[in-house]
Amino acid sequence: MSVPPLDPSAREAIAWMVRLQSGEAGEADQAAFAAWLAKDERHRLAWQHLSAPVSQALAPVRSFGQKLSGQGRRMAQAVDEAASRIQRRRRALRGALALGGLGVGTAALVQRWVPLQEQFADMHTATGERRRYGLPDGSSLLLNARSAADLAFDARQRGLRLRRGAAVADIVPERHRPFSLQLLHGEVRSVATADTARVLVQQREQDSLVVALQEAVDLAPLAGPRLRLAPGEAASLSRDGARVQAEDAAAAVAWARGRVVAYDRPLGEVVDALRAYRVGLIRISEEAAALKVYGNYPLDDTLQALASIAETLPVLVHVHSGGWLVRIELA
């Protein structure tokens, strides 16, 4: 099952849900929301689709997509309730999706659609979406699904901060303004002065992966000595420092072509890559997750990828609830 990119109406509906449930929405926001909802039938349908699970969870929110009369009063109540617990929007979004009157189950559903914590990032992608952003200096950033980054450009420096996920940066050279990529575990800096540099960066649970795809890059970990990567080399950045590691560059960047490539890789890691492309849940047993995989699978059709895996490994793939839940276990 392929997950298409979000259309503009869906993106706007998500932004409105986050805004209205943030604890900072006022009367002007409520009026603007009502105008947006009435402006286009696609807006109404997108809001209905997004808020339908809410109607099954909570009575106050049940009225949202059904009629506009009394909208301001209901929104004010929701805002008042949220404001007693949430002072700042960013804090609210980081706080385990405590979005005012938004039901926990609904929040989890929306979270699978798009990472709500990253909606305030300068650049971000939803589930199943890859997107290329042009940068002010002519460089570009390709974000993997469910990824986010912030810009840090001024007269003296060019920079990005990867907040989540993975990205490939194509960096045009500038002698007087270095380009740096801030990661959780350190900094990556382009040293190219003549040709465009290309580097892959990825935030992982325990470390950050860096692959120099074109031109050399310097790594400055939070601890330990600096390290220079030659083109084709990879390294991990962790709280213990930087360490060169064996990594197939073509396999690491395969997601940019819509593929996940595995050579003697645990099935659990492949499933993690597929999760970023599937709105529904994928659950896998510990035993199945430990199996080693060899193959090249499509990210944009996760069910086809899992079916191909089941043909070569002793696993069973169970699809439930119209595809919303997939379970993988040993055969």
Automatic annotation (TrEMBL):
Domain FecR protein: 122-214
Domain of life: Bacteria
Domain FecR N-terminal per the UniProt entry, residue ranges: 11-51
Classification via Pfam families: DUF4880, FecR
UniProt cross-references to InterPro entries, sorted A to Z: FecR, FecR_N, Ferrdict_sens_TM
Any GO molecular function: sigma factor antagonist activity
Protein name: FecR family protein
Species: Rubrivivax gelatinosus (Rhodocyclus gelatinosus)
The organism's taxonomic lineage, starting at the top: Bacteria, Pseudomonadati, Pseudomonadota, Betaproteobacteria, Burkholderiales
